[in-house]
Structures are given as C-alpha cells and as structure tokens.
DNA sequence: TTTAGCACTCAAAGCTAAAGAGTGCTAAAA
DNA sequence: TTTTAGCACTCTTTAGCTTTGAGTGCTAAA
C-alpha cells in the first residue's frame, strides 16, 4: 500500500472513527467540521473521490456519504492505529478472578472469555487446542461415603479431572484401593484408543465382584480422555450481537449464530488466520472476507493465541461487525492473552506494560 | 369455566392446533375444511363469535381470522389436552448421558437442560434451589506434582467440589497433610459467615511457613461455599427463540434476553408459580400474564420441580411463545424431570411409564 | 490548489389506490 | 330452532407514485 498524504490519512481516520461510532455513512459536509480539517467540503469531496479510487472508501449508493471498505479498515489497522490502550484498572481488577482459576485451563479460558466479552461488548470465542497426546499419568481416588467415591485422573499434560462415582453401598474403601491399583497398573500411559477388549476384560477380572462398576468406570474414563483430547471452541455472550444494527436483520443474525453453533468453520478460520497472517504471535485481525468463512464477510474476527511456554494451547478472540472499535478490542485481547501467557508460565504478577491513560469505555 | 358444547370444543381445539402450527390467525373458511367439522363456514363463524364472547378467542383486527386468547390456551391445556406422549426412545437414549453425570447435581441439570432444549426446540431454564445450609463435612487432598495439589471439599449435602491449587515447589506432601489436618479440625461444620478473622489467624498459624497459601485457600474455600449456597438459574439455547416469528421483532427478543440475563425476575416467577398454582408436584404451565413478569406476557413458561426424596432441589423448564406445542413440551418436561427424580432417589432404570406411540417430532 | 455554485442521483418516507381475506348480518332453507 | 347462502363492510397488505433531502460530481472562479 502506497503512502497517503497526511491530509488523506486524516480524512480516512476521521471517516472510520465517525463511522465506527454511529454506523452511518460519513458525508463531506459533516467531515469539514472536524477539528483539524480546515478546508471546505468541496476539497474533502475531491480527496474522498481519490480515496475511493484507491479502494479505501465506497458509497452505499450515489447520494450517500462514504463508508470504509475492507481495505480501508485494513489500512487503518495496519498504519493509522497506534498506541491503543485499555482501561488497565478494569483488567487488573478482574485478573484476580483469573488467578483463582489457575491450574484448570478450562476455567481460565472460561473466565477470560467472560472478561473479554464484558470489556469489549462483543461475543467472545475461546479455543482450546488439541493436545498432542492424552494419557493418564496417575489414577487416584477418595472414598466419600457409603458406595460413593471420587475418581481422580491426573493427565500427563498436568490437567486434573475428577468424577463423582456412585455405586452399591457394599463397596468398601478396600475395594477402592483394589480398583485404583488395577487402573494404575494397566492404564497408565495408555491413550484412549489403546483401551481394547482384552484390556477391559483384564481390568474387570481384577475388580472381582465389582466388575460391573469397572465397566462403568471404563466408559467414564474413556469419555473423559476423549473430552481431554478434543479441541474445543466456546462462544460467550452471543446475545451481545443484538446491540449492533448490523445484526438487526434477523437473517444476518441467524447466520452468525448458526456459524457459532457449527464451530468447525470457526476453528478452520482461526487456524487459517494463524497460518497465513504475519507473525503468528501477535493479535490477528481478520476483516470481512479476509477470513474464509462467507458468513463472516460483514464481520471481523480478532484473536490472539494463548501459550504456555512456547506452545500454543489455545486462543481467545472476539467477533463483531466490521465496523468495530479496533483500538479497544485489539488492546483488550492483547493484554488479556499476554496476562494469561505469563500466568501460565508461572510469573507472579499480571504485567501491565507502559503508562496508561484510560481510553473511553 | 363452563362446559362447552362438543362442537365448540372441537372448533377451539382445531383453531389452537392450526394456529400453533403456522402462527397465522385461523379463518372460518379454512376451518370448515377440517375433517370432523361438517358444517359451513357461516355456522363456524357463529360459533366463533360465541367463543369470542366467552373470551376464548380474539381477532387481531376486524378482517382477520381468530387467534386463541390466553384464556383460550388455558382452557385448552386444562380441558382439551389429553394423553400427551413424547418420543420415548429419544429420552431413553439420552438418559444414558444423564446417568453418567450422576453425583453432580450441576452436571445433571446441565445435561437435562441440553436435552430439554434439544427435544422441544425452545430455550430451557434450570434452577438449582438454595440449600438450607452449606458446610463442609470433610476436607481431603491429593498431592499431584511439585507444589501442585487437589483440594477436595465434601459438603454435608453430599456435593463434592475439587480445586486444583498451584503453590511453591517447596510445598511437600507432608505440608499438605498438615494443612488438611488444620482445615478438618477448624472448619468442619462451619458455615461461610462463621469464617472470621480469629479463625483465619488460627489457621494461618497452623500452616507455619505456608501461611500465605493458607490465606489463598481461605479465599477459595469461602468462594466455593458461597457458590454452593447460591441458588442458581441457567438458561440454555436462547438462540432457539430466533426460529419463531414471535421474536422476529428485535425488541421483543432483546427484552426476553434481558430477562434471561437478569435471572432474579425469572426466579421470582417460578417461585410464584410453584406457590400459587395447583398441586406443586406436576408440570406447571404459566401462560402469558399468568406469570407476573410483564416481559413474558406474550410468552409461556412451562416447568416442573425436581426432587430428591420429597425435597425440591431445583426445577427444569422451557420458555417459548404463547403459541407453543403444549402437548409435546409438557410431556417432555414431565418425563425428563420424573426420570431425574427417580435417578436421584437411587432407583436404577429410568422409568418410561405406559405404552408409547411416538408423537410427531 | 481551493472553493462556491449548481444540476443530478437516489434512498427513504409518505400517500393513494387496489386487492384480498375475513367478518357480521339478514333472510331463506332445513 | 338451526344451518346456510349471499352480500355489504372493514381493515390489512401490497404496489406504485411523488416528494423530500442528503450528498455527490463537475465547472468555473478565486
């Protein structure tokens, strides 16, 4: 993209910011009152015509003002948008909640999702990456009550899962020890699809009179392992879309929601974006058709991977209309995910880089 | 409500069922073709006029067909609706999932909610009642890894909660034993608001060099107890409302969603309904203004309490337009909640009463 | 290079007329 | 006494038409 003259930059920026605020096309007269632009509407019309010729603006129809194109937004995000900063206080306050959830990735992602949605006022999506390999490092158990115990699975990934199991009252603490012994001896290090019939039979034999319980446990363990191994995508706060006139058309809304429910496509879009766009470390901004999903041609997806050490273990992002408050969203996602990165790496305080004057909420 | 003549009953039923299906007002001509009604449209017009005089029907405007009033639906549900029955197979199949979640009330409700929403195609709400008293019966723990352990809280209600705690690597299994000892000695049987400063100080002293950890644990334990003690309302599948033309008006939809997000009002409505309506054991049907929430004047709320033994521990319900497939929804909620009742009481198989010819889906 | 002026375009809003669905009433038929 | 056919009437919906006004592009002068 060629350099623009300073005035063109100013005009483009003003148009985008005005449009982001009220969603209306921006006319030359309105723009001529912008402080910092001391020229007549006619001059601005000329400039706008040129910006349109470059593909940065467009008109919904001849007698309307200008609206940024996808390319316009892209230029804005890449070249015109500096020093975004969020209300650091908000994040800091909420990060306390995050730290409480430490140790459970699911919990962290869920909490972060809620935070991101609340801060940006757009629906938030979280992705949990598929772990390379799922197997249990250790089984443990706690006898709770007559015939009721807690099965604890500690995975090699460090994740911990617990399931409450209810069985017959005759089931004794000693029986639990026996069963845990068997599980630890035969299932450690096995992946879900290595659990085959001979293995199950062997385990049932070890369980003696509680072989029925053992079979039930196998189902539960198998399901839990499957669940651990699945990549997972969640959407939080879909209903926030209702606020934006872009989705007042009920069909647009329905399409979007169908997309959220399908999940596969969204996952693909994110994988896509991560692969193709610049350094896959920073915040990714996919505007309109830049992401491959047709339904999202009028929407923007902004997200950033979450890492533990240097391994990507998920992503957190936000979906909204193309007309989006990019500064705010990018900054929020950036802070939030960086905060999680460092939490996960064990650094204690959530870092709040640089000095912060709050942006508007 | 006075008895209607058989023909009037037939007409009312036909009108409601036709209207439920397509949402359009029903005209006399259309109705005269109904098999079972062998009279002219003029006769039907006379009957309809009388039904309207009784307050069972109304006209959106002079030149439109008739639409059931709230009272009309009420009469239909009370007097005209017999032998509803669901696709039993569907429920049976899904009940397997339910049984897997046994032991965690939250899990059961969540699963049931998903089932109800899927079966009826309306948003489903679940309520967890506020338990009379929350206190921990026993603390337990499992040392997972260097400085990482699982804290297990067994509540007197039988609920079990686990939290993964990450602390300093120096933290040894022996330290865990010490801490559990202290917790069990000082916190058993205490309710959340009995945890005061002297108690905390005592606990921190017991923790020795890990007093910071102990303080962190107190926060977590306190929060968990609070959470256990809260009554809780969740809504699943809000977006299903989009299917129904009643909510095509975006404001109607917004109001509804705001209602779901507020929760207090909905809780009140349910408490209300349980208190005022017939035997509080069966399925409750609150049509339009019968529930006190103004926003729901055009909607219906159908729910039934869930019990363990004879104690109400929650409720599961469905929200949709007044024009609702009452037969199907009532039957689904009834089966589902009865199934859960008996699961919770420890009876093994999910009972599927009576012979079932499937109704349409 | 900038600006004022002016003719032109086109969506949005309002207005009118025609179409159509459904009713209530009356009078005749069963 | 009940049912039915006929008819005038009401009122929404739809389509087409006009008006309004915002915003533009172009031209010519500053």
Describe the structure in your own words.
- The structure is a homodimer.
- The first copy, chain A, is built from 12 helices and 10 strands.
- Chain A has about 350 residues and is an alpha+beta fold.
- Chain A has 3 domains: about 5-80, Winged helix-like DNA-binding domain superfamily/Winged helix DNA-binding domain (Arc Repressor Mutant, subunit A); about 90-130 and about 230-355, Beta-Lactamase, CATH 3.30.450; about 135-230, Enolase-like, domain 1, CATH 3.30.390.
- In chain A, the strands form 3 sheets. Chain A has a 5-stranded antiparallel sheet, with helices on both faces. Chain A has a 3-stranded antiparallel sheet with strand order 4-5-6, with helices on one face.
- Residues about 350-360 of chain A have low confidence and may be disordered.
- Chains A and B meet through strand 4, strand 5, strand 6, helix 9 and helix 10 of A and strand 4, strand 5, strand 6, helix 9 and helix 10 of B.
- The structure holds a DNA duplex (30 and 30 nucleotides).
Keywords:
alpha+beta; Arc Repressor Mutant, subunit A; Beta-Lactamase; Enolase-like, domain 1; 3 domains; five-stranded antiparallel β-sheet; 10 strands; 45% helix; disordered C terminus; DNA-binding
């Amino acid at each position: 993209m060629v350099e623009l003259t300073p005035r063109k930059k100013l005009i483009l920026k003003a148009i985008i910011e005005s449009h982001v605020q009220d969603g209306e096309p921006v006319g030359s007269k309105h723009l001529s009152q912008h402080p910092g632009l001391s020229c007549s509407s006619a001059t601005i019309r000329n400039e706008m015509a040129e910006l349109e010729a470059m593909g940065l603006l467009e008109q919904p129809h001849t007698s309307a003002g200008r609206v940024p194109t996808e390319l316009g937004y892209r230029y804005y995000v890449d070249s015109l948008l500096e020093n975004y900063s969020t209300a650091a206080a908000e994040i800091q306050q909420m990060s306390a909640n995050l730290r409480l959830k430490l140790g459970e990735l699911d919990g962290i992602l869920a909490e972060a999702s809620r935070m991101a949605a609340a801060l940006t006022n757009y629906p938030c999506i979280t992705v949990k990456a598929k772990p390379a390999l799922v197997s249990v490092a250790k089984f443990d158990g706690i006898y709770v009550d007559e015939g009721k115990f807690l099965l604890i699975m500690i995975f090699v990934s460090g994740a911990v899962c617990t399931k409450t199991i209810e069985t017959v009252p005759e089931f004794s603490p000693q029986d639990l020890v026996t069963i845990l012994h068997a599980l630890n001896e035969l299932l450690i290090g096995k992946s879900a699809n290595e659990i085959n019939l001979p293995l199950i039979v062997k385990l049932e034999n070890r369980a003696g009179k509680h072989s029925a319980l053992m079979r039930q446990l196998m189902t539960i363990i198998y399901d839990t392992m499957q669940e651990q191994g699945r990549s997972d995508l969640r959407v939080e706060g879909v209903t926030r879309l209702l606020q934006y006139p872009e989705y007042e058309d009920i069909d647009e809304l329905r399409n979007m929601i169908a997309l959220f429910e399908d999940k596969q496509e969204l996952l693909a879009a994110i994988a896509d974006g991560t692969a193709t766009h610049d350094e896959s470390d920073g915040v990714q901004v996919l505007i309109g058709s830049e992401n491959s999903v047709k339904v999202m041609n009028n929407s923007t997806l902004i997200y950033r991977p979450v890492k533990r050490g240097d391994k990507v273990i998920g992503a957190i992002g936000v979906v909204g209309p193309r007309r989006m408050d990019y500064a705010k969203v990018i900054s929020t996602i950036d802070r939030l995910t960086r905060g999680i990165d460092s939490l996960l790496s064990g650094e204690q305080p959530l870092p709040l880089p640089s000095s912060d004057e709050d942006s508007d909420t």
